[in-house]
Structures are given as structure tokens and as C-alpha cells.
Amino acid sequence: MKSHHLSNISGLYAVTPNELDTKLIVAKVEAALKGGARMVQYRNKAAGESLLLRQATALLALCKSYEIPLIINDHLDLCAKINADGLYLGATDCKAGPIRRLLGADKIIGVSCYNQLALALDAEAEGADYVAFGACFPSDTKPGAVNAPLSLFAQAKQQLKISVVGIGGITLDNAAQVKEAGADAIAVISALFDAKDITAVSQQFNSIYKPIL
Known about the structure:
Elements: E1 11-15, H1 22-34, E2 39-42, H2 49-66, E3 70-73, H3 76-82, E4 86-90, H4 96-103, E5 108-112, H5 117-125, E6 130-133, H6 151-159, E7 163-167, H7 175-181, E8 185-188, H8 190-193, H9 198-209
Parallel strand pairs: 1-2, 1-8, 2-3, 3-4, 4-5, 5-6, 6-7, 7-8
């Protein structure tokens, strides 16, 4: 088996909003890291190539200083260019196997499996490190997204050895339900990055996984 610097994904997985201001996105992600976010995914559907490179490079340096992995959404070339910690794929983008061979054994590869356990089993067989199911709840980021029933997490945990992440519409009000359903981690965009106090909200999401002593 491959050994990773991070094989067990748990707690708060912060996913960036579409933000064109690099200083602002870095400040927001730092606030989330101060609150204990365990992993960061750089996702920006509004940025062009040069801005993607600039923001991803800045975020990678920030995440390294916190010793937290930075995952790139979709852009294999960008991930390889800056030597980010991993890549997150849509289930239809490409199989995890070829990506693994391109990026190497130590990278973290995640696959979006929507509401389909069969896709998750396939992703695990292909060498993915984690899969994400969603949307758990209606989401402003993807209003038309399929709904992933919370019962899917228990099924997935029985059949998969890799980590399972919940995504889509997760807020402080419903995050505990996703954890209790069996999700190892919760991926959050709006409820985290639209908050007035991102650090405090990050701490609250994390306390669902690790009660503050």
C-alpha cells in the first residue's frame, strides 16, 4: 500500500470560494487554518489561468506554513506545476489511476462521487485516497446538484476502506448529522467563508469532530 503524509482525512475540509482578490482569499484561508481546518481545497471557477497560478502558489505557501495539505480542484496541470499536495476530480473528469501515475504515490487524490456508491468503489479500486458524496443538503454553490442521502455514508463506510467526505450545503446547524451519518470529514464553502468570523466558525465546525476540551 502507498503511504501518505495524510491517509486519514477528518474534520473540516475548507473549500475556497470564487474569489478574484488574491490577498482576500489568502486572508480568508488563513483564518480558516487558524480555526483548525484540516485540509484546504483550492477551487475557483471564476479565475483565469494566470490568476489560478498566482492564487494557488500563495495558498500552497500558506498551507505549508500550517503543515496542512492543499488540494487543487480539477486542474491537473496546475497541481503538477506548483507541486500541490493533491488533486480533486469530478467522477467524470478522469480515473484516479492515470492521475496517480502522473502525480506520484505521495499525492492525495479525491474523487467526487455525487450520490453513487458504485463510483466510490471504482475510485477506491483506482487508488483514490478519499471520495466525496453530495450534495448532502441544498447548496447555493451548486443549486442544481443531486441530493446524496445521509444513509449513503453508512453504506459507504461498510464497503470502503478510504475516507468519506460529505459536501454540499453543510452548515453549523446540520454538520453534526453528516458526521453522525458516517462522514470522516465535511467539506464546506459558503458557511465557512461567508462567515463574519471565519476562525470562530472553523473552530465550531472542528469541535463537531473534536470536542474542545
